[in-house]
């Protein structure tokens, strides 16, 4: 089934929202896509006609199994292209999102599978998000935000929740990347900012907002696919 670029963008946005909220409202989807609720309503009717989502009257809507499958494949392409751009073309991790937004709409499954193979079947993209495999399975990982970590315990950065270019640039400036090992030396009750020590570098102070968006894992780290 051929799906338009606009429909793909709606499917992907619904998928991410329902991961957080369960049922998704028209207003929440319109806000995520930065568009008007009326245009979202029109698209939802089309997706419902294509049997890609379920609507619950007065409550909201969610993707059905076919809708989820389509959304996950879009996410798979997006994250593989981000990986390719960073690892093979040396783009910065704060430069690739918009380019991948365009590349994710290339429909060739063969190209996607060959890209995956060429890259060595990576598990995560440059921001630590899991890349769905060819069967659409996503790896589930146990992660905490840096703000939840106790003092003086070594943790490893495994993901970034907010991936705005501004956030990623700030982290890069402070030498915080995927795989960086760090520990919290001090918590400041006044504004919940943290003094963080990255190995071989002087301590830096980061805000509570930044700390909430830096995801870390302990030694157990990763669980099964499902």
Write the layout of secondary structure elements.
Layout lengths: L4 H17 L4 H8 L3 H13 L3 E4 L3 E4 L1 H23 L9 H7 L5 H10 L20 E3 L2 E2 L9 E6 L4 H9 L7 E8 L4 E6 L5 E3 L1 H6 E4 L4 E4 L1
Antiparallel strand pairs: 1-2, 3-10, 4-9, 5-6, 5-9, 6-7, 7-8
Query: What fraction of residues sit in β-strands?
Result: 15-25%
Structural category is alpha+beta
Oligomer: single chain
CATH class designation of the largest domain: Mainly Beta
* N-end to C-end Cα span: 25 Å
| Main beta sheet | 6 strands, antiparallel
The unreliable regions are 219-226
Shape: globular
The SSE order reads HHHEEHHHEEEHEEEHEE
* CA radius of gyration: 19 Å
Quickly give the CATH architecture of the largest domain: Roll
- What is the average of the pLDDT values? 89
Strand neighbour order, sheet with most strands: 4-9-5-6-7-8
* CATH superfamily descriptor of the largest domain: Ferrous iron transport protein A (FeoA)
Total number of distinct structural domains = 3
């Amino acid at each position: 089934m051929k799906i338009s670029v606009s429909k793909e963008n709606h499917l992907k946005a619904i998928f991410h929202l329902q991961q957080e909220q369960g049922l998704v409202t028209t207003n929440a989807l319109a806000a995520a896509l930065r568009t008007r609720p009326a245009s979202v309503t029109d698209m939802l009717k089309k997706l419902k006609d294509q049997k890609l989502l379920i609507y619950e009257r007065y409550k909201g809507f969610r993707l059905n199994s076919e809708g989820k499958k389509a959304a996950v494949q879009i996410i798979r392409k997006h994250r593989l292209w981000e990986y390719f751009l960073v690892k093979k073309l040396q783009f910065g991790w704060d430069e690739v999102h918009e380019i991948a937004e365009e590349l994710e709409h290339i429909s060739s499954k063969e190209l996607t599978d060959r890209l995956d193979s060429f890259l060595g079947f990576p598990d995560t993209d440059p921001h630590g998000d899991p890349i769905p495999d060819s069967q659409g399975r996503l790896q589930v990982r146990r992660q905490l935000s840096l703000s939840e970590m106790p003092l003086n315990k070594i943790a490893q950065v495994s993901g970034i929740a907010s991936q705005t270019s501004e956030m990623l640039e700030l982290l890069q400036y402070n030498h915080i990347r995927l795989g960086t090992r760090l520990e919290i030396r001090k918590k400041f009750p006044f504004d919940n900012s943290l003094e963080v020590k990255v190995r071989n570098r002087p301590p830096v102070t980061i805000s509570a907002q930044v700390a909430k968006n830096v995801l870390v894992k302990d030694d157990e780290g990763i669980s099964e696919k499902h």
